[in-house]
Amino acid sequence: MTPGSPLACVLLAAGQGTRMRSRTPKVLHEILGRTLLDWAVAACLESGPDRMVVVTNPDADAVRERLPAGVEAAVQERPLGTGDAVAAARAALGTFAGDVMVLYGDHPLTDPASLRDLRATHSEAGAAATILTFERTAAIGADFGRIVRDAGGGIERIVEVRDASAAERAITEVNSGIYVFRSEDLWPALEGLDTRNDQGELYLTDVIGALAARGRPVVGHRHAEATGGLGVNTRADLAAAAAVLRDRTNRAHMLAGATIVDPATTWIDASVELERDAVVHPFTVLRGATWVGEGAQVGPHAVAVDARIGAGALVGPFCYLRPGADVGPGAKAGTFVEIKNASIGERAKVPHLSYIGDAEIGEGTNIGAGNITANYDGTRKQRTTIGRDVHTSSDTVFVAPVTIGDGAWTAAGSVITDDIPPDALGVARTPQKNIEGYGTRKRSRG
Fold first, then answer.
1. Residue 142 confidence (pLDDT)
2. Could you say which of 29, 221, 352, 391 is catalytic?
């Protein structure tokens, strides 16, 4: 093997995920807007493989449909363990010769940099197999295969926890489950596997012992970050992995120049973009294709999904921006405001207690408290267009489709069903009528 050898990535995703207790395949559960599978595939692709194969079970059509273009699928027909799963990938790879990197579809914490370092170690050592290992700590538990080394420090084998002796369980160097093999060493070793173990399965880990026993060079690359080896088997694991990815994502944004006031309470999808000097306040959730411009402030207690927040804009507290919301530069979407499929012009304000859906609001306009765009006519959604420098009073309802001209005003409590010309005042409310003595008569009836 030479540093320029072709690379194939084999991602194992055939597990049934029964401990998740879910109708959703395990690898399709989401963290920060990506499935577990998405996270693992992205890490693989950053390694620059020439081929990539994802191994699934026969019933995993939804998993196979999720694969990006260029990523191949292989089917493990029966659940006979990780060794059998890699053998299924071999059939898909055909005559491929080079390095084979093996990792798991339920490991969303796999760090692309660690994969590059693993392959570099493999290349430099001229190894038949290289294992990504890490130091076991109390924080990550004990359910990892142990790395058993010989007297000279060479890797002798991997022992699964359920098959380990008490002395072997005391070993602190553990297996992440991520490997690089020379294909010419891997394929024959797979053929020699047997099921003489506690699970009655073909263990990929047994390939390591077989290679070492034949004198083939097996080395380890110890990774400093133990969380990189953590997989997801339960909902509790899912939450633990989410917390790690949340912290990684938030840290990356902060290092790039955004302020996140309380990272522990801030959840930002991997697809979200924050410009420099953006400020995200506590208990804020940013999802999907949301973009936050330079100097904008979001939160506290704000949710934005597929929204755009312009430079210097203010969003929150307690604000909900739904898909298609576009808050312009210097604009405000304030307390208990919901905006959907609507643009708020530069320096326009929707300060509080309003629903703005399917609308356009011009520059410098001020929307009063409790305003609503009634956008559904019983058949389809209709749009409200409000011009520049408009002032709407409290509790105005705009029954779409309706257009409000530049510089117009509305009176409090108005239900606007017709267009308002520029600079006009729209008043639309029933005349008040006072009925004298009503309270007295009401009380006299008991």
1. 60
2. 352
Query: What is d(CA 419, CA 398) in angstroms, rounded to the nearest whole number?
Result: 10
Per-residue DSSP letter, 115 = H
Tokens coding 81? 């363990």
Q: What is the pLDDT of residue 88?
A: 95
Q: Which residues on neighbouring strands pair with residue 104, listed in sequence order?
A: 12
C-alpha 110/C-alpha 250 separation (Å) is 17
Q: Topology of 7-229 in CATH?
A: Spore Coat Polysaccharide Biosynthesis Protein SpsA; Chain A (3.90.550)
Known active-site residue 221: no
Note whether 287 and 281 are within 8 A (CB): no
190 in Cβ contact with 87 (< 8 Å): yes
Reference 344, options 335, 353, 330, 352; nearest CA is: 330
What stretches of 136-215 show up as alpha helix (H) in DSSP?
Answer: 166-169, 183-191, 205-213
pLDDT at 231: 87
State the span(s) of the chain assigned CATH 2.160.10.10: 258-426
DSSP string, 32-47: TTEEHHHHHHHHHHTT
- pLDDT tens-digit map of 247-302: 999 999 999 999 999 999 999 999 999 999 999 999 999 999 999 999 999 999 99
The residue ranges of the chain whose pLDDT is under 50 are 1-2
* The pLDDT value given to residue 141: 64
- CATH fold of the domain at 258-426: UDP N-Acetylglucosamine Acyltransferase; domain 1 (2.160.10)
Question: What is the predicted pLDDT for the residue at 1?
Answer: 41
> pTM for the complete prediction?
0.91
Residue 196, Cβ density class (10 Å: 0-12 exposed, 13-18 middle, ≥19 buried): exposed
